[in-house]
Amino acid sequence: MAKIVILGAAESGVGAALLAQAKGFDVFVSDRSPIQPIYKEKLTAAGIRFEEGIHTLEEVLTANEVVKSPGIPATAPVIQALREQRIPVISEIEFAGRYTKARHICITGTNGKTTTTLLTYHLLKQAGYSVGLAGNVGFSLAEQVIEDKFEYYVIELSSFQLDDTYSFQPWIGVLLNITPDHLDRYEYSLEKYAQAKLRITRSMDSSGWFIYNADDEVIQQEFQAVFCEANQLPFSLHHRPDYHLAAYYTAEDRICTNLEPGLDEGGQEISVAASPLIGQHNRQNTMAAVLCARVAGLSDEEIESGLGTFRNADHRLQPVGEINGAQFINDSKATNVEAAWYALDGIRQPIIWIAGGTDKGNDYSSLIPLARSRAKALICLGLDNEKLKASFGGVVPHLEETQSMTDAVRRAAALAQPGDVVLLSPCCASFDLFKNYEDRGRQFAQAVEELMEENK
Questions:
Q1: Which position among 64, 149, 182, 455 bears the catalytic label?
Q2: Residues in domain Mur ligase central (predicted)?
Q3: Considering only 33-37, 285-289, 335-339, 436-440, which range has the smallest mean pLDDT?
Q4: Is 125 part of the annotated catalytic residue set?
Q5: Rounded to an integer, what distance in angstroms lies between the CA atom of residue 121 and that of residue 135?
Q6: Reduced to 3 states, what is the DSSP secondary structure of residue 181?
Q7: Is 122 one of the annotated active-site residues of the chain?
């Protein structure tokens, strides 16, 4: 009996272990960290052997094949030992792909992956398709493949998940954007990181579709070196003479789509007026999801109807209430400068901005022009706000600080005029005052709700 060792016992690892067992392999799971109780219970219930707090090399190196968690870098000693022994190391996605004939719609990019994945899944599901949701959104593809009851899977893929894929074949591959992130895993090379993202195309053939952002300079540059057999569907925020575009905006809320971009005839216009998504980056995410839906065969009516009923994941530019004509938006997931840039850029109304937290070596210079033109006030919410104050003190007309979310919301409400937006988009990690970004976002929404009750 062939032996499969799984490294890492969280969502993807446990899913892979359960699938490997279902397919008749001898399975052993090894995690260098403590295993969460929910996953330990799953492994125990299935009778799968596991260890935690250590990788026992004698056992790991008896594997015929190893399925590696995306969180383990290639430089880890256990991976180096496996490479020396020439034992194949693959990802959970690669392993799962062997056991399903379903069509995979795979979405990657530095920013916007989750929103685009959830929106694409929602559009297909609302239209009555048999579709599963998997990957980096927190659901194991491998575990779903055990029953394999879906005809389609919409899968969010990080570069780490793509790193160990070889023959996994997306039907539709989507690349939203490439900006510097996780470069420590790619020898601090943007080119190597970009090539990891473009790996999504490596097994695609002429029956597949590759949807990508023609406005992204890094994609334009790096894609030239990639041989891609799939049908190419570039999209842009504007009509461009240098590309045969598959999608572009003809007005603020209208997208022209054309699945045969080589022919300039035959475009179909779709209204996105009903979409609740905010900001320029979400206009790009929406185009990518609409193209996925068009390739999957949805009608214009099905797409427009689905856009209107979509609700994004919590803490991502999420409207949470209105007080005296000012709208409150929770973007607690914006834990880096770039994510906050998208929020400030995407909101057209005057902004009362709440930011701050644990600084990750942030360079705020890219935010200064936006803060100057959009922000009426900045409320710094953190234990140490000196860097924010130094960066924005002379830029925004009003700046103050607090260590209390309730106080931040009340001060923002007092400063806001009807038509303004109070935006929590922190730029920073949350660990100084909150458990995590979800806790920060929930406290913001709760403080807004309490103030709304008082103002009734």
A1: 182
A2: 107-293
A3: 335-339
A4: no
A5: 12
A6: coil
A7: no
* CA gap 182, 200 in Å, rounded: 17
387 is in an annotated binding site: no
Pick from 337, 336, 315: nearest CA to 423: 315
pLDDT band at 148 (very low <50, low <70, confident <90, very high): very high
Count of the separate structural domains present in the chain: 3
> Does position 184 have pLDDT exceeding 80, yes or no?
no
Domain of 51, CATH number, reads 3.40.50.720
Which DSSP category does 167 fall into? Answer: S
113 carries a ligand binding annotation: yes
Domain identity same for 333 and 402: yes
pLDDT beyond 80 at 381 = yes
250 is in an annotated binding site: no
The C-alpha angle 116, 243, 220, rounded to 5 degrees, equals 65
Q: Is 248:266 a contact under the CB 8 Å cutoff? A: no
Q: Out of 87, 114, 145, pick the residue that ends a domain.
A: 87
What angle in degrees, to the nearest 10, is found between the helix axes of 113-126 and 280-295? Answer: 40
Do 136 and 261 lie in a common domain? Answer: yes
Q: Which domain holds residue 398?
A: 318-454
**Residue 136 designated active-site:** yes
| Residue 109 assigned as binding residue | yes
Q: Decide which of 275, 309, 343 is a domain's last residue.
A: 309
Burial class (CB in 10 A: 0-12, 13-18, 19+), 251: exposed
Tokens matching residue 233: 């569907």
Is residue 357 domain-shared with residue 423, that is, in the same domain? yes
111 is in an annotated binding site: yes
The encoded tokens of residue 371 equal 């803060």
Q: How far apart are CA 328 and CA 420, in angstroms?
A: 9
The catalytic residue among 42, 55, 104, 113 is: 113
Could you give the count of Cα atoms lying within 13 Å of 76 in the half-sphere of its Cβ?
18
Asked whether residue 324 falls in the same domain as residue 381, the answer is: yes
Token output for 87: 């034992």
Whichever domain contains 258, its CATH number is 3.40.1190.10
Position 23, amino acid: K
Strands ordered across the beta sheet of 3-7: 49-52, 26-31, 3-7, 65-68, 89-91
CA distances (Å), 286 to each of 107, 248, 253, 317, 353, in order? Answer: 13, 11, 11, 14, 25
How high is the pLDDT of residue 265? 61
For 242-271, how does the pLDDT look when each residue is reduced to its tens digit (9 = 90+)?
A: 888 999 999 999 999 999 876 656 688 999
Looking at the structure, tell me whether residues 70 and 160 fall in a common domain. Answer: no
Same domain, 401 and 434: yes
Q: From the candidates 55, 136, 258, 385, give the one annotated as an active-site residue.
A: 136
Are both 61 and 183 inside the same structural domain? no
Kindly tell me if the per-residue pLDDT of 187 is higher than 80.
Answer: no
- For the stretch 208-220, pLDDT in tens is 999 999 998 888 8
110 is known to lie in a ligand binding site: yes
